[in-house]
Amino acid sequence: MEVHRILVTGGTGFLGSAIVNALVKQEHYDITVLDIKPPSTNTPSRPNVKYVQANVLNLSDTQKIFKQAKPTIVIHTVAVSPIGSDRYSQRRRASVFGLNVNGTRNMLDAAKECGVRAFVYTSSCAVVTDDVDRDYPNMDESTPTGNATLVYGQSKAAAEKLVLQANTPHFLTCALRPSIIFGLGDTQTLPTIHACISKHETPYILGSGLNLFDFVYVTNVADAHLLAVSNLLTTRTAAGEAFFVSNGQPVPFRDFCVAIWAEFGHVPPWEARIPRAVAWALGGVAEWVTWLTGSQATLSRGSVKDACGVRYANLEKARRVLGYEPTVGLAEGVKIACQHYKRQIEQLS
């Protein structure tokens, strides 16, 4: 089988490392990982994986790495996602657009200059769902983008547009839109939900508590990237296209949180349902307190909109074109991820 040279940006990160692990198992990829951070100390040494440190915002350095690695395939995962109160503000707009949009433009320019054949971009469901004033039940690829109200979704939509517009018969591109990713090495979703236990926030139900959300286990997203690469190298039916990727198991946002808390032996001692309008007003008060004290609060008007929204996707296109099927189910993924996170907490204590 032909050995392909593949370059993975962000390959030491949460999703990127899962993609590298999946590529290694295929045994017919010569892999270069480009990341601003070095691999963790427990990363195994592999003969077909080379790590290089670079910033995708530095086009000159990126071009040098491309000339050395000579990849025929690129998987571009590098991005920054504001967390906490920054998610709902404009404070980091310049840096978010800088990395997510300009960094992607640099990667496209270097890839085309180097003669890359296939370019797979890690986009996000946020290109649609960061329009937090609307619900998106059963959204699909025909759902319009460009309506995001939050900086992250706006930046990912702009970068995705660059990638898909760059598609040509000789430079094939596609974009994957994962839903909320969780799993081994998760630094956002699982830690944030787990932290609600120590903050004594688990009893409070915002809104109905029945709003459906999509989540996806990290190795399922990695599998989708490999399927996209394979498609662009063979049938090419994914070229110029975007695909939603999730576990295909929408669940109430509250239920997902309760399942995680249960893995840590926690059950909310009581429950109090807070109507959405009341929660939104309380979020405004919390924002003022945060501003006055300089502290960080979980509750804000933005977080209420997030927690009460309906956000899940139809996977028909990914299944039909890529042959995608999630191999790790939601319940299994929660158990695996929580057990791993529990061990991390124990090591730090």
UniProtKB/TrEMBL annotation:
It comes from the Eukaryota. GO terms for molecular function: aldehyde dehydrogenase (NAD+) activity; oxidoreductase activity, acting on the CH-OH group of donors, NAD or NADP as acceptor. Residues 7-269 form the 3-beta hydroxysteroid dehydrogenase/isomerase domain. Signal peptide: none annotated. One of its GO terms (biological process) is steroid biosynthetic process. Gene3D superfamilies: NAD(P)-binding Rossmann-like Domain. Coiled coil: none annotated. Transmembrane segments: none annotated. One of its GO terms (cellular component) is cytoplasm. Pfam families: 3Beta_HSD (PF01073). PANTHER family: NAD(P)-BINDING DOMAIN-CONTAINING PROTEIN-RELATED (PTHR48079:SF6), PROTEIN YEEZ (PTHR48079). This is C-3 sterol dehydrogenase/C-4 decarboxylase-like protein. It comes from Lepidopterella palustris CBS 459.81.
